[in-house]
Design a protein that fits this description.
Blueprint: H1 2-22, H2 35-46, H3 49-66, H4 73-91, H5 98-127, H6 136-163
Helix pairs in contact: 1-3, 2-3, 2-4, 2-5, 2-6, 3-4, 4-5, 5-6
Length: 177
């Protein structure tokens, strides 16, 4: 059991370091990719809410330690996104299809991006620090992150489906009985 906890912590630490040191230094739009959010949505799809929340809290805590945002922004963003995406998964998406994966990562990306940006800007306003709430770069960055996260989630879906056929690439399968 301790070895499994150690491996999970090592995986989380690797993902956070990979996001901070490698992904954020990629050229152009590729730096907008959020590997951590993709990982959390994937874990939610294959595991339970409690497991995903543990991952989300740990990842959010580590990201808050290493980021320049106010402490708790990433933690709140990941937990908020996980809870809303879990609600969508339970109530609206009953199967594990490609469309469900895409809808959930799009929802999580929008929720997380707006939560992190909006809450940090609201805190900046209350502290009297100048902030830019919404501008052209804000929406362009959101669209880039949405597009890149969706592409990576499609790749992850098909890689998972290559090794395990528990997911379906479509909503309904047209079978003749």
């Amino acid at each position: 059991m301790y070895f499994k906890i150690f491996l999970n912590l090592l995986l989380i630490l690797f993902l956070v370091i990979f996001q901070i040191s490698f992904i954020s230094s990629l050229p152009g739009s590729f730096s907008n990719t959020n590997i951590l959010l993709i990982f959390l949505v994937y874990v939610l799809m294959i595991s339970s809410l409690s497991t995903t929340l543990i991952y989300g809290i740990t990842i959010g805590f580590l990201m808050d330690i290493f980021s320049f945002y106010y402490f708790g922004i990433y933690l709140g963003g990941f937990v908020f996104s996980i809870l809303i995406v879990n609600f969508l998964l339970i109530n609206f998406f009953t199967n594990r299809s490609l469309y469900a994966f895409l809808a959930l990562i799009i929802s999580a990306t929008i929720l997380n991006f707006f939560f992190v940006t909006f809450v940090s800007n609201v805190i900046s306003i209350f502290l009297g620090v100048p902030s830019i709430l919404f501008n052209q770069g804000f929406f362009l960055s959101a669209v880039k992150q949405l597009f890149l996260n969706s592409i990576i989630m499609v790749i992850v879906f098909y890689l998972t489906n290559l090794f395990n056929n528990s997911f379906r690439p479509v909503f309904l399968v047209n079978k003749k009985y």
